[in-house]
Amino acid sequence: MKAIWNNTVIAESDNTVVIERNHYFPHESIKKEYFKPSETHTVCPWKGTASYYTISIDGKENTDAAWYYPEVSELAKGIKNKVAFWKGVEIVD
């Protein structure tokens, strides 16, 4: 699977986990040069507290377009520290 934004592959892995129709990529599969930590956090009742990244490529930013759960509930242990995308990030096979 590949995550693409602004015509650039920002993550690639054969080992994604699908939860609620979102592909969660292993943290080591993201191209870290495109990701900036965000101060945003949200809480999911069954997964835990999510942290976000802003994606930055060629002077364009996609604020909080990637998220991950540094700590998860027992129910969501399969996505701990895996990264998912939204806000126009395309996921392709």
Automatic annotation (TrEMBL):
Domain DUF427: 1-87
Name used for this protein in its record: DUF427 domain-containing protein
Organism of origin: Winogradskyella litorisediminis
Biological classification of the source: Bacteria, Pseudomonadati, Bacteroidota, Flavobacteriia, Flavobacteriales
